[in-house]
Write a structure and sequence with these properties.
By secondary structure, the chain is an alpha/beta fold. The protein has 4 domains: 100 residues, Rossmann fold; 61 residues, Helicase, Ruva Protein, domain 3; 114 residues, 3-Layer(aba) Sandwich (Cobalt-precorrin-4 Transmethylase, domain 1); 127 residues, Tetrapyrrole methylase, C-terminal domain (Methyltransferase, Cobalt-precorrin-4 Transmethylase, Domain 2, 2-Layer Sandwich). The chain contains 17 helices and 18 strands. The strands form 4 sheets. It has a 6-stranded mixed β-sheet, sandwiched between helices. Strand 2, helix 2 and strand 3 form a beta-alpha-beta unit. The longest helix has 18 residues. The structure holds S-adenosyl-L-homocysteine. The site of S-adenosyl-L-homocysteine has 23 residues, from helix 13, strand 15 and strand 17.
Length: 468
């Protein structure tokens, strides 16, 4: 985050606008709508701004800027084309600690003016940190379209009851659930439609029943976080993340996905960290049980899909044994995410009639896989957790009858901005993998279908990834 977003109260505060341009008129209008007392410094004024002065909305000092003009000011905006003046005001304001914005000159400004969606009292400010103001305007247009014009009415309606709800429901979680129900249901619709009397009646009824509700019993949602790209989360996963009290996650969950959780949800890391061991599964299960028993709404985020090599089954069992309600929300498993990202069809009428997912890691020092089955022709083999045992896997597949020239792809950090791909054959892939030094989660895909992607794009740069 380049700048810290906040909303400044300017009601009855003095602010200074320097310059008599059209831009100055726009800024003065905005400041007036926030209740500020605007003083304008400009040699001459014409057009709209002259009218605002004549109407008595802003006061005008018809002379040059003087450092003393900053006394008592909460904010300064410079909307003048005079570069020497811009620098002078900026310098003087920053020396006195008065926030200053020089229009279109971020380097001279101590704050930036966001693009604004005004649905008072709801205000949305958008900033691209100065990188692309045009993009901010586009985002604003999209938000304007998505937000009902009357959304402000809903906020004002909620405000009337804010105190009463706070007094009636003393648990923050109960309050949050109550307001969720208000906004997402009939009451919200009534308020939006302007039926305030009906909405009030319903709200009081709901508040009364919420007061008598038993304290919430916690629940655990085992949620598939997908392979990394947050756009690949399911809508349900996104909704649960927005409501969770606690998010329990591990190493495989991409930071971009974790960032989708409610800001003030507690985040608990239970995966491997460098130098430390992973938390044993039994301990994770115990943690989930005790969080739910404490009445929390827990999201257990698991990379990809919880039920594909994710030990989700064990967690469900432990929770059910402890009498905790549990729901499983599927996610896009790494095989599907990586295949899509690399442009490799997992099945194909001419090349692969089946697709097998296997785990390539060692159990008790051995890789126990059904090699004759994996070496069958006309199928795609996807190996999870196979980076370490790749040499053994490749040689066993050849030993059991797959041609040494069978194409193989490795996809590291699939679907994220860090995605890397290596492509070769059963005979060459080990050497290539060592050269590339893959260290992140890596998926291995074996079969003729990999060759299809290669014929289409010899550099294996399908869409945006980096081929090696
Ligand atoms: N439940 C997960 C798999 C967990 S096993 C799922 O459904 O995807 C961990 C293995 O998954 C890693 O060793 C790697 O082989 C694979 N994997 C997970 N995310 C990946 C990603 N973004 N890119 C490549 N491989 C990934």
């Amino acid at each position: 985050m380049q700048s810290f977003p906040l909303f400044l109260t300017l009601q009855d505060r003095h602010v200074l606008v320097v310059g008599g341009t059209e831009q100055a008129a726009r800024k003065a209008e905005l400041l007036l709508s926030a209740g500020a007392k605007v003083t304008l410094i400009a040699g001459a004024v014409v057009g709209e701004i002259a009218q605002m002065i004549a109407d008595g909305f802003i006061s005008w000092a018809g002379r040059c800027f003087d450092d003393g003009d900053l006394a008592g000011m909460s904010l300064v905006i410079v909307a003048s084309d005079d570069e020497a003046l811009q620098a002078r005001v900026s310098h003087a304001a920053q020396q006195r600690g008065v926030p200053v914005n020089v229009v279109d000159r971020p380097k001279l400004s101590s704050f930036i003016m966001p693009a604004i969606v005004d649905r008072s009292p709801i205000t949305i400010a958008i900033s691209t940190g100065g990188a692309a103001p045009a993009l901010a305007r586009r985002l604003r247009a999209e938000i304007e379209r998505a937000l009902p014009a009357a959304i402000g009415r809903m906020a004002r309606f909620a405000e009337i009851f804010r105190e009463q709800v706070r007094r009636t429901l003393d648990q923050p979680r109960a309050r949050r659930r109550f307001w969720d129900r208000v906004f997402a249901g009939r009451i919200g619709e009534m308020a939006l439609a302007g039926d305030e009397i009906g909405a009030r009646r319903e709200l009081i009824r709901l508040l009364d029943s919420a007061r008598h509700e038993a304290p919430t019993i916690g629940m655990v949602h085992l949620v598939g976080a997908g392979p990394g790209d947050p756009d690949l989360l399911t809508i349900k996963a996104h909704r649960l993340l927005q409501r969770a009290d606690v998010v329990v996650y591990d190493r495989l969950v991409a930071p971009e996905v974790l960032a989708m959780a409610r800001r003030d949800a507690e985040r608990i890391h239970v995966g491997k960290q460098s130098g430390h061991h992973a938390m044993p599964q039994a301990e994770i299960n115990q943690r989930l049980v005790s969080l739910a028993r404490a009445g929390k709404s827990v999201v257990r985020l698991k990379g990809g899909d919880p039920f594909v090599f994710g030990r989700g089954g064990e967690e469900v069992e432990a929770l059910m044994q402890a009498g905790i309600a549990v729901e499983v929300v599927p996610g896009v498993t790494a095989a599907l995410g990586c295949a899509a990202s690399a442009g490799i069809p997992l099945t194909h009428r001419d090349h692969a009639h089946a697709c097998v997912f296997v785990a390539g890691h060692r159990k008790d020092g051995k890789v126990e896989l059904d090699w004759p089955m994996l070496a069958r022709p006309r199928q795609t083999v996807v190996i999870y957790m196979g980076a370490e045992t790749l040499p053994l896997i490749a040689s066993q597949l050849i030993a059991h009858g797959l041609p040494a020239a069978t194409p193989v792809a490795l996809v590291e950090n699939g679907t994220t901005s860090r995605e890397r791909r290596v492509v070769g054959t059963l005979a060459t892939i080990e050497r290539q993998a060592t050269r590339a030094g893959l260290g992140g989660p890596t998926l291995c895909l074996v079969g003729e279908v990999v060759g299809i992607a290669l014929t289409r794009d010899p550099e294996f740069r399908f869409v945006s990834g980096i081929g090696l």
